[in-house]
Design a protein that fits this description.
Helix 3 packs across helix 4. Helices cover about 30% and strands about 20% of the residues. The protein is globular, with a radius of gyration of 14 Å. It has about 150 residues and is of the alpha/beta class. A 6-stranded parallel beta sheet has the order 1-6-5-4-2-3, with helices on both faces.
Length: about 150
């Protein structure tokens, strides 16, 4: 698990292969929170953020990087998603302030990501770091922490 301190989620560099993947998501029907397929890569990303402006910015940045947007919704909608629904190759979560229900959702997401072999990146605040860290013990996620102040 890696923890990085950053002011903006996109500032931390990661070791991802943005090349063509196995196209395991090709031909899947749209819907269930999926965003229009704007990416050029075979690699897909799911974005879960309660702050709508940040979710839109993350989706725009991912599409600009050539990633295919699998899902983009708030964190609460994740618990409505069937367990078998694909999360994609990369899962981005923003949770600066988190409550009990979201902690349970985050723990379930951690298990799903580990089982699927996806990469999880979570951005949070110093105030929520301990709670978020405690939920993420399966998927070896990267945690980005916004500096306080």
């Amino acid at each position: 698990m890696q923890i990085r301190s950053t002011g903006v989620m996109g500032q931390a560099a990661s070791h991802y292969n943005y090349g063509q993947s196995d196209d395991r998501h090709a031909g899947e029907p749209a819907g269930g929170g999926r965003v229009q397929d704007r990416g050029r890569s075979g690699m897909s990303v799911s974005i879960f953020a309660d702050r709508g402006y940040l979710r839109a910015e993350m989706a725009e940045d991912a599409a600009a990087a050539g990633l295919r947007i699998e899902h983009a919704s708030d964190l609460g909608r994740l618990s409505d998603q069937p367990e078998a629904a694909s999360l994609g190759d990369l899962v981005l979560v923003d949770c600066p302030v988190i409550d009990g229900a979201e902690l349970a959702t985050l723990a379930q997401l951690d298990m799903r990501v580990a089982k699927a072999g996806s990469q999880l990146v979570v951005s949070t605040s110093m105030g929520s770091l301990d709670d978020v860290f405690g939920c993420l013990d399966q998927s070896e996620p990267q945690i980005l922490v916004a500096p306080s102040g």
